[in-house]
């Protein structure tokens, strides 16, 4: 193997967290950092045009092309499971929604880990640190940071009417989803800059790439970690990887940091002999650390896409139905970076309760002035809107497991959606609430007619079955390398994100979340990386 050199830190994965860490760790000129990314540069034009996610998801240039195992909770269906394979990671192909979640999410993290550093009061300054908020600095928001947050550059009367209908149903109108209490309805803020996607590669990595102490290697596939047995225990010395047909090793003097995401990080750990011992032996991998939690605790938000035909309404289905309509959309974006091409996949959001017993909202809506059968299909030939609703706090748990010792083989992803009675009840309640909103007076002028799942589903059991038929991932996998207290056999990392049983190794991405966030997961991952950068710097000073 050829040596790629020796560095203070090696970051495995140039996605959301990896870009942030590369920026923060290289601020000290004497610190040398290697960033390894399996994908390429973020120079594909469709990454930067907001509607271009349609061309990035399912595209091997930008997506790992994962699929789930057939899921009993979804009537045996297998789903696409997009994960970004490009600099910027999933921030290069996601929905661009800026969302922090609820204050209680982080307070629960602090309780579960025994570390007050993860509480809402402690993480809020980290969110603000990287933020460049359209409304300027305040008690809740930051200005001048790398992570640009803007209002959307579009307007749909149909969505305005849905917001009015939500208010008539008891879901209040609010101005900001990101103050710790997102109870209400509003248009989502987005990570865009003047109508162009703002990913973490542009925000954090591009400035850092000018520094001499950062080396970036793209198109490089990490095979495994280098784990040594020493008299003081297991130590991670670096990584083995391939790129351009050459096999490399790279050495980390201080730490190796996995930032490969909720699929990639547990996969690399398992391939390196850190994981459930029986699974590793079956796959032909030598066991270094029997860590049963690696790959377990998989949580995701399952969205239930309810579709309604409408009359007397402008929707994207009809606006983009002709070549003339498409041309107008293209001209508007080329001239003003506004209109449908500037659209995030979802424009209007709402947070609500599935039942009065919920202390905080446990449902999230993503409402869109369009409809289609499934992702990648053409828009329906009739005017319609989609009201997707997801259970923010699912009790179902899945897992991610390697299929073999071959690092190029896709892992087996088993989310186990709707595998608990509680999740099925919540799904049925969510569909019922959507019907109540759509039946409100504000939408009456559009004569909404339920197309999916259809009015034939009425009882709680029938609605739960309907959820199995129409449910699909909203691309928020987390939890597969969860952090926890000392002595928790299912915890993969401690509250400082250090891998249990292996020195000089951390995991820093959405996989460390012990519980899924009550909202979209990208910006919370940036916050995790901000805290990790502080923890790593503190550890370096202590030596």
UniProtKB/TrEMBL annotation:
Domain of life: Bacteria
KW Flavoprotein (keyword) present: yes
Cofactors (names): FAD
Gene3D superfamilies attached to this UniProt entry: FAD/NAD(P)-binding domain, Glucose Oxidase, domain 3
Alphabetized SUPFAM superfamilies for the sequence: FAD-linked reductases, C-terminal domain, FAD/NAD(P)-binding domain
Family listed: Belongs to the GMC oxidoreductase family.
Entries under PANTHER family matching the protein: CHOLINE DEHYDROGENASE, MITOCHONDRIAL, GLUCOSE-METHANOL-CHOLINE GMC OXIDOREDUCTASE
Protein name, entry field: Choline dehydrogenase
Source organism (scientific name): Massilia violaceinigra
């Amino acid at each position: 193997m050829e040596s790629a050199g020796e560095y203070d830190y090696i970051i495995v994965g140039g996605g959301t967290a990896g870009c942030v860490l590369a920026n923060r760790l290289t601020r000290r000129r004497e610190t040398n950092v290697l960033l390894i990314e399996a994908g390429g540069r973020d120079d594909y034009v469709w990454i930067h045009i907001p509607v271009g996610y349609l061309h990035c998801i399912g595209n091997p240039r930008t997506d790992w092309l994962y699929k789930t195992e057939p899921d009993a909770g979804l009537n045996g269906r297998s789903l696409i499971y997009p994960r970004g394979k490009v600099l910027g990671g999933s921030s290069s192909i996601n929905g661009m929604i800026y969302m922090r979640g609820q204050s209680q999410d982080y307070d629960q993290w602090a309780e579960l880990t025994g570390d007050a550093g993860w509480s809402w009061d402690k993480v809020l300054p980290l969110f603000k640190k990287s933020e460049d908020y359209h409304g300027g600095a305040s008690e809740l928001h930051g200005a001048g940071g790398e992570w640009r947050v803007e209002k959307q550059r579009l307007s749909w009367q149909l969505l305005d009417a849905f917001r009015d209908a939500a208010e008539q149903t008891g879901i209040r109108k609010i101005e900001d989803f990101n103050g710790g209490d997102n109870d209400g309805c509003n248009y989502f803020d987005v990570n865009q800059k003047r109508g162009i996607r703002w990913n973490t590669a542009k925000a954090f990595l591009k400035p850092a790439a000018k520094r001499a102490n950062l080396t970036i290697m793209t198109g490089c596939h990490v095979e495994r970690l280098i784990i040594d047995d020493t008299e003081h225990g297991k130590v991670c010395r670096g990584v083995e990887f391939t790129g351009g047909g050459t096999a490399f090793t790279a050495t980390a003097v201080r730490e190796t940091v996995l930032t490969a995401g909720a699929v990639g990080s547990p996969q690399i750990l398992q391939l390196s002999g850190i994981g459930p011992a029986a699974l590793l032996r079956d796959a032909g991998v030598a066991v270094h650390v029997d860590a049963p939690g690696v790959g377990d605790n998989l949580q995701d938000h399952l969205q239930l896409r309810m579709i309604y035909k409408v009359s007397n309404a402008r929707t994207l289905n009809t606006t983009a139905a002709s070549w003339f309509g498409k041309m107008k959309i293209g001209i508007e974006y080329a001239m003003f970076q506004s209109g449908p091409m500037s659209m995030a996949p979802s424009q209007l959001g709402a947070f609500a309760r599935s039942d009065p017993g919920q202390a905080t909202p446990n449902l999230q809506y993503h409402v869109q002035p369009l409809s289609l059968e499934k992702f990648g299909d053409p828009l329906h030939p009739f005017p319609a809107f989609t009201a997707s609703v997801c259970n923010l706090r699912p009790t179902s748990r899945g897992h991610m497991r390697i299929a073999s010792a071959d690092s190029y083989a896709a892992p087996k992803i088993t989310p186990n959606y709707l595998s608990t009675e509680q999740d099925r009840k919540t799904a049925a309640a969510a569909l019922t609430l959507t019907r109540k909103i759509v039946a409100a007076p504000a939408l009456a002028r559009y004569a909404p007619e339920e197309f999916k799942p259809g009015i034939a589903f009425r009882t709680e059991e029938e609605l739960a079955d309907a959820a199995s038929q129409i449910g699909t991932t909203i691309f928020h996998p987390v939890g597969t390398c969860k952090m926890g207290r000392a002595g928790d056999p299912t915890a993969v990392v401690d509250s400082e994100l250090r891998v249990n049983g292996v020195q000089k190794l951390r995991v820093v991405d959405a996989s460390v979340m012990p519980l899924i966030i009550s909202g979209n997961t990208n910006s919370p991952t940036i916050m995790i990386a901000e805290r990790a950068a502080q923890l790593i710097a503190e550890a370096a000073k202590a030596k």
